[in-house]
Amino acid sequence: MRTEVPESPDQAAEALGAMTSQGLRVRPLGGGTKRSWGAPAPDPDAGLSTAGLNRIIEHNAADLTAVLQPGLALAAARDAFADSGQMLALDPPLGESEGATVGGVVAAGDSGPLRHRYGAARDLLLGAQVALADGTLSRSGGKVIKNVAGYDLAKLFAGSFGTLGLVTEVVVRLHPLPLRRVTAVWRADDAGALERVALKVAASPLEIESLDLFWSGGAGAVLARLAGAGAERAAHEAAGVVSGLGVDAEVETEDADLWAEQRRRQRSEGGVVVRVSALATDLARVARGADRLGASLVGRAALGPLWVKLPPAEAGDLAGAVEELRRDLAPHRCVVLDAPLEVRRKVDVWDERAGAEVELMRRVKARFDPGGLCNPGVFVGGI
Amino acid sequence: VRRGRSGRRGLVGELERICGPERVVSHPHSLKTYESDGLLQYKVSPRVAVLPDSAEEVRAILRVCHEAGVPYVARGAGTGLSGGAVPVEEGVLIVLSRMRRVLEVDLPNGRVVVEPGVTNIEVSAAVGPTHFYPPDPSSQIVCSIGGNVAENSGGAHCFKYGFTTNYVLGLEIVLSDGDIVTLGGKEVDRPGYDLVGAVVGSEGTLGVVTKIVLRVVPVPQSVRTLVAYFDSTDQAGQTVSDIVANSVVPGAIEMMDRLSIEAAESATGAGYETDVGAALLVELDGSESECDARFDDVVEICKHNGATGIRVAENQAERELIWRARKAAFASMGRLAPDYYVQDGVIPRTRLPEVLARIDELSEEFGLRVANVFHAGDGNLHPLICYDSAHPEEAERAEELAGQILDACLDAGGSLTGEHGIGIDKKRHMPKTFSETDLDAFQRLRCAFDPEALANPGKVMPTPRLCGEVPGPYREHPLERAGVIERF
């Protein structure tokens, strides 16, 4: 496969335009940590790598904004901002050698525990520059925290799997790195009790930074992370919010490993991970569904995206397990993320529901990429 | 405009068949109510206004418009400040104020489902006292959620809590061809493009939103509010920067200059000191322990930057009084001048001193008083330009001054609008910040939703554009290759 490695947004747009004008189907390439995501599409004709677009263009520390190129490793951005006591509040699992890039995480719409308080990539993007299939560069949004001029195309591109064009630059909002972080952990072997804990903590007025669930083999935990100068006192208070449920909390002041583990659990090397778009009131139901399949579960206890990791099995059995999970959890959508090719061939990765929404998505795709050459076939509805 | 099978009477008749004659307004005198929104400079009388009760009625109305090729404009409470809800002459105005049901309150999941005519404050009321809906435009008592969705409204608490777009998870939208489409839902991470994110802030140009799923959050345990007075806006601005640099993210941080303090105080008697250069309203919210830990730091930072006085709200009543003055700042300008124009620009917060100095210069140059109110945390400026429309040339000067203030914001790396939208008012400025290819990309989205450009035409985009057909696989036309024609 012919792969170009442009070193500027202009070069990227030019390269994309040149490829599409020859009718080549183009796949954007980032850190390669999520190669197995998306529907199994025929191999593209050409690749467009962001490896040459890997710089922090601006870090406006006092304004809490930054301009980043897509090929920048998210880990590198994290370290650079931490030096100024700041963070890009986007903490998905970073994959092998922490190789996940800013562009890849944005394009895949991946997220981690910080989402509870700060939202997903789409919420942190202030603007984006994109190269479109016709070789033009266009920009939307701006460089300031607050801006409503023009359509918010950055949100359209976030999570679009490269099917509308290549993101060549993003402007992001930063947050101060909290002075302290402390976690309250409730461990139990009753999923119903953990759901009640999660609902109670989610409704508490304590301003929780992350609120997660973990469940495996009939036991699990709810984790609530408090952040700020008063984090320790707040964590003890959070522990006290739950009473009469028969589940006691422990307060962990050294909590970094707990959360690294939560992130790690969202991925599987060689196995199958299904992301369920659930709600907080479904936690026990999803946990029971996971138990029936011998699967484990991790995710955001209040917002509801949950990652179900299936135990190793033959491709046919794994596909069957995915279908069973979908029947069990309907109407919640169950998207297959990590999965071997044989499994992705046997199931509809996106759990598509025919209807007006996907039809409108096709119309959007047709306007941005009329030839259907940007990463075709990997997205919802055959897009 | 295609006339189709119906003339003017025919169109009204068809709308009357859908909604009943009592919910169709076509008498020129009655239509006057609807000829402008909160920005009174723009007035257009629509051909007819209609007040639907349901998404089905909206669908039927849009089908009639589509059939006749008649443009339409959706309107909420009409509090917008960019002319976004100004009707189109010969068009239909769809007034959504009757669709004001709260359809579902789901507190365990922190979600609420509402119709577009529900007011902003009613959402918080529906989920209180345990939860609230954070985006809080100054007009929150009357402005509608549908309007907030169209404009991606902000408010005083947005620096910490985010904007409308960060709280909308799902929408039901009626497209120009009459299709009702459900986008997103109560769950996050549903597969596909984030069309909800594309529709929020699209200023009514993609269709008519008829149902909205919102996220709400728990009311924080503690709120501490103070007002600090300074000799200059520079000192107040430095205080904001120092607060943020110390990892404090206030729930709100608002600044008023001398003129706006005077106006707000005379209107509300909230007890603000008036002989000062600037007042900074700082509100910390969150857990008790966090507020305890940081409130004294904030007081120290204010003192360190030369605060001449600090007033701490001792109870809820005092807090409300302090806010009442701030929220009345726009309306109270009437005490200073017969007319005023509210500008809405954004700058990187660190550029505040130079931009304020520039506004002072311009004010002097144009001989018009400018009062300044800011959402200081996020650099969103609201200069209020005082003038007297009895002197037409003064109105023109005010408009010119407003434009130059925007230029100053853009020169500082800022934005045309932080929360009021582009509407009619700012569309001519769009090319200052967006290139031709940027605008083309906007147009692609527009054409996917509304290829015949019937939804709120003449807003946002600086010049009218047409959508081409989308052919099968894209083939470049020889004229395109030669750069003679463009395709959108």
Number of strands of chain A: 18
**Overall outline of chain A:** globular
Average pLDDT confidence of chain A is 97
**Amino-to-carboxy terminus distance of chain B:** 21 Å
**Largest sheet report of chain B:** 8 strands, antiparallel
What helical percentage do the residues of chain A reach? 25-40%
Q: What radius of gyration of chain A results from the CA coordinates?
A: 21 Å
Evaluate the radius of gyration of chain B: 23 Å
Structural class of chain B: alpha+beta
Poorly predicted runs of chain B: 1-6
Look at the structure and give the mean pLDDT of chain B.
Answer: 93
Strands, helices and their partners?
The complex is a heterodimer of chains A (383) and B (488).
Chain A: E1 2-4, H1 9-21, E2 26-29, E3 46-49, E4 56-60, E5 65-68, H2 74-82, E6 86-87, H3 102-108, H4 115-118, H5 121-124, E7 125-131, E8 137-141, H6 153-157, E9 166-173, E10 175-176, E11 181-188, H7 191-202, E12 210-216, E13 219-227, H8 231-241, E14 249-252, H9 256-264, E15 272-277, H10 283-292, E16 296-300, E17 305-310, H11 315-329, E18 334-336, H12 341-346, H13 356-368
Parallel strand pairs in A: 1-3, 2-3
Antiparallel strand pairs in A: 4-5, 5-9, 6-10, 7-8, 7-9, 11-13, 11-14, 12-13, 12-16, 15-17, 15-18, 16-17
Helix pairs in contact in A: 7-10
Chain B: H1 8-19, E1 24-25, H2 28-31, E2 48-50, H3 55-68, E3 72-75, E4 92-95, E5 102-106, E6 111-114, H4 120-127, E7 131-132, H5 145-151, H6 158-161, E8 168-174, E9 180-184, H7 195-199, E10 208-215, E11 217-218, E12 222-230, H8 233-245, E13 252-257, H9 258-268, E14 278-286, H10 288-304, E15 309-312, H11 316-327, E16 339-342, E17 345-346, H12 352-366, E18 370-375, E19 380-387, H13 392-411, H14 430-433, H15 436-449, H16 478-481
Parallel strand pairs in B: 2-4, 3-4
Antiparallel strand pairs in B: 1-2, 5-6, 6-10, 7-11, 8-9, 8-10, 12-14, 12-15, 13-14, 13-18, 16-19, 17-19, 18-19
Helix pairs in contact in B: 1-3, 8-10, 9-11, 12-13
